[in-house]
Structure prediction request, 142 residues.
Amino acid sequence: MSAVHRKTKQKEAILGVLKGTTSHPTADWIYEQVRCEIPNISLGTVYRNLRLLQREGVIMELDLAGTLSRFDANIHNHYHFRCEQCGRVFDLDEPVDKAMDDNVAQKTGFKVTHHRLEFRGLCIDCQRSDSPESLKKYLGLT
Ligand SMILES: [Zn+2]
Ligand SMILES: [Zn+2]
Prediction:
């Protein structure tokens, strides 16, 4: 197999993994999945390809403050819900409010291209599986 072909195959495998999930995975998670397909791939290669795909506008990096980068193959603007306990990120089926962009643009004179919105709280699983005690512990209240 030629080097060029190998590179294309790696990139496609990485994109395939990301497109096959809605879990907004980290690079490490993607790496584990891609290894099933290409056992000798390195984590560095996965990172490099994620950067590349991002520059090409094929995927989006979620820049959530203070956490590992998570990646999204859905590049249309959409809102997210982030669970404060397990850290999972969910897509929301909530229409993006374009009026907010106009509003801010009008008030500030800034040229607004889009906005990002992230809701926070507890996902269904975490609401079920955790006692108030462990939640308090997690939030550092004890
Ligand atoms: Zn959760
Ligand atoms: Zn998303």
